[in-house]
Design brief:
Elements lengths: L2 H27 L1 H9 L3 H26 L8 H14 L5 H14 L4 H26 L7 H18 L2 H11 L13 H25 L7 H18 L9 H10 L5 H42 L1
Helix pairs in contact: 2-12, 3-4, 3-9, 3-12, 4-5, 4-12, 5-6, 6-7, 6-9, 6-10, 9-10, 9-12, 10-11, 11-12
Length: 307
């Protein structure tokens, strides 16, 4: 068996061990308290958290369509929402890296040249990560015990900004990583506007996370801003661990680590798992909604053609 296959198999096994340990160890360690916290969750707050998360996925799909359209992306908004939801679900099977590849393939299939699809895939991921990091950095002063993490994220924000706001350096970095790549820059109408639209995603996910916290009966000072920052940095760290499916385990570990500075660890574990459940089901609902929208619009077009 080739060495590369052995390495891939070892990484998959390691991924499974990491995910299983991240989920099982905290649950078994605090099972009694976690179970009690689950029983007393407030349904109304969970409903708001769920709706906010569904809205965040639809917003993120709109941001993607806005970026891809100048590159020749042909589908309209409704079709783009559905396609983006599809690529979001793919990353649950092998890992985040496959979700990124699915975006590039989807853009190539719908009119974007391969060189531009590669650029847009990396650029969109970079904007999403950078906006998440800058979100955390701005509100991290409200989160206890995050000084070291704040400055590490701040340094990463500065370095990433040099590439995102100067695309030629960005392309040169890609060539340095893999000289055989063929990449072509797609103009962004306004990078500042693009970043602001992606900040809207973190506001919606943070709102969802905040209501997940209050559903567990906790009321943290400045909890909305804290929630936005904690969710954003946890998402970023989970995303960067590309071999895990949608950052499962890694993201929750980060949430618990940051939440336990202000609330009991059993409640923090409960909130982290509730956030993951809401995240997964919200993606499924967003996918179902976009599929329904596309199906209804297609039916209307067929009915009009038959008249």
């Amino acid at each position: 068996m080739p060495v590369t296959h052995l390495v891939k198999r070892a990484l998959r096994i390691l991924m499974g061990v990491i995910v299983a340990a991240s989920i099982c160890v905290p649950l078994f360690s605090y099972w009694t308290d976690v179970r009690a916290a689950f029983v007393h969750l407030k349904f109304g707050h969970l409903s708001v958290a769920f709706i906010s998360m569904v809205a965040s996925f639809l917003w993120l799909a709109w941001c993607w369509h806005r970026l891809a359209k100048p590159g020749g992306f042909q589908p309209g908004m409704r079709q783009a929402l559905f396609l983006y939801s599809q690529t979001a679900l793919i990353r649950y099977i092998p890992g985040n890296i496959f979700g990124l590849a699915a975006k590039a393939l989807m853009m190539r299939r719908w009119g974007v040249r391969p060189q531009q699809a590669m650029y847009l895939m990396v650029y969109e991921s970079g904007v999403l990560l950078w906006s998440g990091m800058i979100t955390f950095f701005l509100v991290s002063f409200l989160i206890p015990e995050t000084a070291l993490l704040r400055w590490l994220i701040g340094i990463l924000c500065f370095v990433a900004a040099l590439f995102l706001f100067y695309p030629m350096r960005f392309v040169q970095l890609l060539y340095w990583i893999k000289p055989s790549l063929s990449v072509q820059i797609v103009p962004d109408q306004s990078r500042v506007t693009t970043v602001l639209t992606y900040l809207g995603y973190w506001a919606l996910t943070g709102l969802s996370f905040a209501y997940g916290i209050t559903a567990a009966g906790e009321s943290i000072p400045h909890h909305l801003l804290q929630s936005i920052g904690i969710f954003a940095v946890s998402w970023v760290i989970g995303f960067l661990v590309l071999i895990t499916p949608s950052g499962v385990g890694i993201r929750e570990w980060c949430m618990v680590l940051l939440l336990q500075q202000s609330i009991p660890i059993a409640i923090a574990i409960t909130i982290a798992f509730v956030a993951r459940i809401i995240f997964i089901f919200s993606e499924l609902v967003a996918y179902g909604l976009t599929y329904l929208i596309v199906f209804i619009s297609s039916s209307d077009v067929r009915a009009h053609d038959n008249i």
